[in-house]
């Protein structure tokens, strides 16, 4: 069944109002009619089977038939703080990371970022990434749309780690402590943050800061992963460890 | 240190001969001189520290200083049989799959492939994918260049599974048996084949054939992964399970 995300406010009692681009998709692309059903998610974890009742040019109305209770979202919540990569790599990171199960993306300004974070362009880029996250969430049948945070500096992130139970930093210089060892020791974690360096990697100074703030450098094995691959792979391993990748 | 792959024949006794595009890279791009060192891999699992002795326009000679014994390659060998995806997605699959640790790629013609396998274009595409695998292997510090097989039909693959200890087929229709369960039951496997369907998925008929040939359908969890993401994610989980992702 076709899936759409709406804002939580678009669901009032049993009535759902779909607006924006999705109207065109329902009415013109799929040419759906009253009586047909779609799945509507509110983006914060709830999914409903909805029967369409009124299809207009600007909005589509529907009635909730039932709430869906499949557990699609991971119990452990994963945040990817990604050192800003070159070109359009962040698009791919947001798309694939959403598929795997990441809940939140933080674009990170780090010492070796080649692309400098541009305050002027920021709003536009963030909107773009948020749209990619929404589309990927629909495609992956998620009920939560991962959020893309406003970009921040590495230092600022390091000073706002309170909400996380575990902060890991995959780092080429770490040879001993593996991801599996760290995760196995912490079966209770609920909020994990992964910090991934940009193309040039993480500086020793950044690692020292991270260590001082309680983050744990880990190795992801002896093969060197590109910046756009590391977060995705680490997220897959975290999901696997916590039984979220097909128990 | 810079890394290069050569054919095994390019290493004779202690002397290494580098030819092709890498000569330009060493001589013109990096402007290296005699006495400088690089890492040379033979692509079948051996790596050497090599001191350059003679730099020409067509070939660079060097002497082996020592063999490197770091274990970069995974003990378990992973083959990805990938239902041919649209556009240039296979490029990304080969690049990222090489980083994660896949040893062999098989482009697979399946019932729901949108792109038909083109015998005429085949040689050229395979050369392209093989080049991507070599470059990704260098970047990932692997000592083995994954091979890209000649494309084959799903039926032909199903009749040539003898060499594998375990054949898994991530399948949306499989709800019960998870990847972790299957891998946990088989700690002894050495050769794993993953069969990934194209955009449209695997047909029920293909699943029936796979089952009959001893392959095991598995779920990768409740989030639906795109075809270009599934193999990469499953490979990461296999490496994680076998302690290859930072034990």
UniProtKB/TrEMBL annotation, chains A, B:
<keyword id="KW-0489">Methyltransferase</keyword>
<dbReference type="Pfam" id="PF04452">
    <property type="entry name" value="Methyltrans_RNA"/>
</dbReference>
<comment type="function">
    <text>Specifically methylates the N3 position of the uracil ring of uridine 1498 (m3U1498) in 16S rRNA. Acts on the fully assembled 30S ribosomal subunit.</text>
</comment>
<dbReference type="Pfam" id="PF20260">
    <property type="entry name" value="PUA_4"/>
</dbReference>
<dbReference type="InterPro" id="IPR046887">
    <property type="entry name" value="RsmE_PUA-like"/>
</dbReference>
<keyword id="KW-0808">Transferase</keyword>
<keyword id="KW-0949">S-adenosyl-L-methionine</keyword>
<keyword id="KW-0698">rRNA processing</keyword>
<dbReference type="InterPro" id="IPR006700">
    <property type="entry name" value="RsmE"/>
</dbReference>
<dbReference type="InterPro" id="IPR029028">
    <property type="entry name" value="Alpha/beta_knot_MTases"/>
</dbReference>
<dbReference type="InterPro" id="IPR046886">
    <property type="entry name" value="RsmE_MTase_dom"/>
</dbReference>
<protein>
    <recommendedName>
        <fullName>Ribosomal RNA small subunit methyltransferase E</fullName>
        <ecNumber>2.1.1.193</ecNumber>
    </recommendedName>
</protein>
<keyword id="KW-0963">Cytoplasm</keyword>
<comment type="similarity">
    <text>Belongs to the RNA methyltransferase RsmE family.</text>
</comment>
<dbReference type="GO" id="GO:0032259">
    <property type="term" value="P:methylation"/>
</dbReference>
<feature type="domain" description="Ribosomal RNA small subunit methyltransferase E methyltransferase">
    <location>
        <begin position="74"/>
        <end position="238"/>
    </location>
</feature>
<dbReference type="GO" id="GO:0008168">
    <property type="term" value="F:methyltransferase activity"/>
</dbReference>
<feature type="domain" description="Ribosomal RNA small subunit methyltransferase E PUA-like">
    <location>
        <begin position="18"/>
        <end position="64"/>
    </location>
</feature>
<dbReference type="InterPro" id="IPR029026">
    <property type="entry name" value="tRNA_m1G_MTases_N"/>
</dbReference>
<dbReference type="InterPro" id="IPR015947">
    <property type="entry name" value="PUA-like_sf"/>
</dbReference>
């Amino acid at each position: 069944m076709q899936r759409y995300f709406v804002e939580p406010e678009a669901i009032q009692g049993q009535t759902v109002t779909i607006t924006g681009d999705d109207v065109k998709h329902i009415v013109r692309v799929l040419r759906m009619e009253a009586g047909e059903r779609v799945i509507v998610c509110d983006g914060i974890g709830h999914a409903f089977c909805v029967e369409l009742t009124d299809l207009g040019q600007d909005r589509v109305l529907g009635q909730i038939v039932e709430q869906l209770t499949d557990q699609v979202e991971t119990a452990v919540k994963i945040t990817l703080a990604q050192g800003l990569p070159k070109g359009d790599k962040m698009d791919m990171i947001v798309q694939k990371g959403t598929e795997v199960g990441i809940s939140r993306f933080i674009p990170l300004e780090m010492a070796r970022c080649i692309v400098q974070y541009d305050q002027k362009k920021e709003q536009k880029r963030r909107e773009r990434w948020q749209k990619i996250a929404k589309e990927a969430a629909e495609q992956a049948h998620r009920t939560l749309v991962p959020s893309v945070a406003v970009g921040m500096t590495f230092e600022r992130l390091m000073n706002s780690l309170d909400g996380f139970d575990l902060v890991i930093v995959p780092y080429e210089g770490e040879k001993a402590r593996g991801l599996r060892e760290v995760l196995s020791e912490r079966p209770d974690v609920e909020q994990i943050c992964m910090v991934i360096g940009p193309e040039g990697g993480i500086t020793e100074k950044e690692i020292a800061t991270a260590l001082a703030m309680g983050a744990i450098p880990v190795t992801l094995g002896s093969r060197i992963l590109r910046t756009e691959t590391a977060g995705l792979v680490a997220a897959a391993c975290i999901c696997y460890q916590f039984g979220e990748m097909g128990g």
